Amino acid sequence: MNTLDENAVAMIIGASGGIGLALTQRLLDHSRTGCVWAACRRPDNAALAALAQRHGDRLRLIAMDVGDSDSIAEAFAVVESKTPQLHLLINAFGFLHDADAQIWPEKRIEDISAEGLEANFRINAMAPALIARQAFPLLNHRQRAVFASLSARVGSISDNRLGGWYAYRASKAAQNMLTRSLAVEAGRRAKRLICLALHPGTTDSALSAPFQSRVPQGKLFTPDFAASQLLARIDNAGIEDSGQFYAWDGEPIPW
After folding, report:
1. Measured on CA atoms in the order 30, 25, 81, 128, is the torsion positive or negative?
2. 217-223: long-range contacts (C-beta < 8 A, 24 or more apart)?
3. Which of 64, 118, 161, 182 could form a disulfide with 75 if both were Cys (CB 3.0 to 4.6 A apart)?
4. Which residues does 87 contact at the CB level (< 8 Å), separation at least 6?
5. What's the pLDDT at 102?
6. Domains along the chain with CATH numbers
7. Closest C-alpha among 205, 182, 79 to residue 133
8. What Rg do the C-alpha atoms of the chain give, in angstroms?
9. 211, 185 in Cβ contact below 8 A?
10. Beta partners for 107?
11. Are 154 and 168 in contact (CB under 8 A)?
């Protein structure tokens, strides 16, 4: 990345997931980024441990449960005690279904449940907003900084022609609004901060695994490809792009 140098500090939240891990690895292997904080529920993940062994102090692992506001606050207290600034923060996590299929994307209005709505909104909308609250002081400085959240094209209201997936669609639309509002406030209070909603495309991950048979040939991306495209979008973003919603290929997505 041309916009990050040896003095830059990045943070990937959801760093043990498919895209999150790929983003962490690319920042360490293919950029000059001085330090990468990798946050997830289980930072003792074997893949992250291998990266830590290879990159030493450039990678800092920290525990964070994005579904727990106290855990988010505690993690940022540690980060703030170690570094005065962040130059890049990416929320690389999301929720669509649980492991035992008790919560599943809805096909009909009758499928909606309070549990499904709460789970989707807690992770997809509330968590990025609570992270922004904690991260804002670290991102508000005189250098360029980026706050990016992985959204989804299905969160676009005007692009919704199929219906269904009520909780996921609505929670991603809410995430987009929160990102947009943060960008508006940053325009007044943190004029070097760029806030982005990014659609990574359908990526080979645990989130998409049950639905991959429906993906057109050539449209299922590897995590590394998705990570490279997302970092390119971030690298090319200017302050005029703050508050916008972009796909992996740079095309704007309508709200």
Report:
1. positive
2. 221/248, 222/22, 223/18, 223/19, 223/21, 223/22
3. 64
4. 4, 8, 9, 10, 143, 144, 145, 146
5. 87
6. 9-247 (3.40.50.720)
7. 182
8. 17
9. no
10. none
11. yes
> Look-up: residue for tokens 């690389």?
92
The C-alpha atoms of residue 211 and residue 6 are separated, in whole angstroms, by 40
Question: 218 Cβ partners below 8 Å, 6+ apart?
Answer: none
Identify the pLDDT of residue 197. Answer: 98
- Tell me the residue length of the chain: 255
pLDDT single digits (tens) 168-204: 999 999 999 999 999 999 999 999 999 999 999 988 8
How many CB atoms within 10 Å of residue 210?
13
Residues 63-75: what's their mean pLDDT?
A: 98
Query: Interhelix angle for 127-139 vs 166-189, to 10°?
Result: 20
Give the separation between CA 181 and CA 201, rounded to whole angstroms: 24
Instruction: Give the chain as a DSSP string.
Output: -TT--TT-EEEEESTTSHHHHHHHHHHHHSS--SEEEEEES-TT-HHHHHHHHHHGGGEEEEE--TT-HHHHHHHHHHHHHH-S--SEEEE----S--TTSSS---SSGGG--HHHHHHHHIIIIIHHHHHHHHHHHHH-SSS-EEEEEE--GGG-STT--S---HHHHHHHHHHHHHHHHHHHHHHHH-TTEEEEEEE--SBSSTTTGGGGGGSPTT--B-HHHHHHHHHHHHHH--GGGTTEEEETTS-B---
**The pLDDT of residue 213:** 64
- Which residue, among 89, 36, 35, 95, has the nearest Cα to 65 in the 3D structure? 95
**Tokens 């429906």 found at:** 214
